[in-house]
Request: fold
Amino acid sequence: MNILTPSASIELLAQAESGGFPRFLGPIETSTPLNAAPYIVPLWRLREGDFLSSRRPFIEKLIAVLDELAIEEIAPQAILIGGSILFEAVKPADLDGVIFYRSERAESLAPMGLRQKLEEWKSRGLDVRLIPADGSPVLLIKVAAYFMSLYTSQRRGRPAPRGPILIDCTDDKLIGYPR
Reply:
């Protein structure tokens, strides 16, 4: 498998964004996990505003949620984002995503009032799920595959499905976030 250099990764990401996040950047026969959806984006690129800039209000709300989780010592590892947020011609009602996290304190989610937090976030336009990344690998793969399938499904009256993006929350530029 080819290993992407940072500049090649940025180039592929720019190509994917300018192409409307197709599921594959080229013919399926020549695709690899590195040049197809989900497209990997380091979280710092979202923070700096140079990716999905037309969706900045949703990105700022997502970053605020990550800040809330960090206070509770919940470390997001990755976020899978799909849905209408990736359709440039569509005005999205919300951001659909799955936050895969780790926590040294398993009880961290209980004091947060998880159900209330999810409802609060949804009222802010964030339809997100929290999935532990430090549990069963089979369950983790199952959940990721389900949401990948959901986010790439064809829905009546909607444009052709887009490839989701996968935000890498473990980048070293994120000082202050638990790992």
Q: What stands out?
A: The first strand starts at residue 39 and ends at 42.
